[in-house]
Amino acid sequence: MQDKTIEPIWKENYSAIAMSSSEEYLPYLCVCLQSLVDNTDKKHNYDIVIFSSCENEEKKKIVTSKYSKKNISIRFYNPKRHFENIKLYISKPRFNEACYYRIITPEAMPSYKKVVFTDTDLIFNTDVQELYKINVNGHAIAACIDPTWLLLISREQKINSTTYKEYGKKVLNLKDISLYYNTGVAIINIQEFKKNDYCQKLKKLISENEYLSQEQCAMNSLFNTNIKKLDWRWNLTVPMPKQRLYPEDYNLKTAKIYHWPGNCKPWNYKKRGFSNKWWKHAKKTPFYDSFKIYKSNLIKKLTVILTA
Fold first, then answer.
1. CA distances to 20, 33, 68, 184, 192 from 63, in Å
2. Numbers of helices and strands, H then E, in the chain
3. Distance of alpha carbon 227 from alpha carbon 141, whole angstroms
């Protein structure tokens, strides 16, 4: 039987990291882990927990055996029990319930002071301990402003019968419409969550609302101005070709984490910015052959469409 909570592997000199993944996303999880491992310090310890309801023990063993080292611990944790009798609304086809898992991190890991929680459609370009060491005292979480949100509100784009600005004001109750954060990379202040019962408050919000971006909207709505703003380099939303998300004076090559949210993933779109960085790490993973097969089939399908 699974332990009710997760305890730290080390008492000191470690960084705590968590990610969520569905079974079908495990190969992409490996690319994320590969990039993390490629940037680790042998003198530092890394306590990594994968939140997943995947029951395929063989696949999970592939992940843990590949990336567990003397100073790197990889564990899987099934968070399903934390969501009993709670409706998990899925807003878009590319999302699933695994997206919600981050909000119960303090319930699953109550003995930790803080945890870096990330999506898996991203790669690390630096040592994650640098992010973990950022002080988040007094804040529920730390995260980066979402540049896509800023683009959407600047264009007054509509969602159904309203605009993103109206959604931010009336549904999310944002005090400052420009302060909407992407929680795909976040430092979660465990003690702040416990002190304010934030897990239960987030569960209540997601059970009562059908948010556009699921748990991300819930966290923005609840925490609002209680979010520490991280430097944009900690969660660079890789722009589509010819799309401008950042000012011209931002050097995108200095990003510490490259993130591909949305539909255009680096394994689908060969020419999307910085996809070569993703493939560099993908080549080292145990699932690389499946990536090559997928990529080959995709190219064949595009060739048929373009020549038909």
1. 13, 9, 8, 21, 31
2. 11, 12
3. 5
Q: Which residues are CB-neighbours of 30 under 8 A, at least 6 positions away?
A: 63, 66, 67, 285, 286, 287
State both tokens at 175.
């005090």
pTM of the full structure: 0.91
What would the two tokens of residue 255 be? 């990003």
* The residue to which tokens 């380099």 are assigned: 233
User: 301: number of CA atoms within 13 Å, CB side?
Assistant: 8
CA distance 102 to 219: 10
**In this structure, is the dihedral angle defined by the CA atoms of residues 271, 235, 100 and 229, taken in order, positive or negative?**
negative
Under DSSP, is residue 255 helix (H, G, I), strand (E, B) or coil?
Answer: coil
Q: Positive or negative CA dihedral for 90, 242, 164, 198? A: positive
Report mean pLDDT in 10-residue bins for the chain, 308 residues. Answer: 81 97 94 98 98 95 97 97 90 85 97 97 98 97 96 86 92 96 98 97 96 96 96 94 86 96 83 86 92 50 33
Q: What's the rounded Cα separation, in Å, for the pair 114 and 116?
A: 7
Contact 45, 128 (CB under 8 A): no
Answer yes or no: are the C-beta atoms of 68 and 47 closer than 8 Å: no
Distance (Å, whole) CA 123 – CA 119: 9
Q: Are strands 181-189 and 141-145 parallel, antiparallel or unpaired?
A: antiparallel
**Burial degree of 136 (CB within 10 A; 0-12, 13-18, 19+):** buried
Token output for 84: 């009993």
Cα–Cα distance, 264 to 273 (Å, whole number): 10
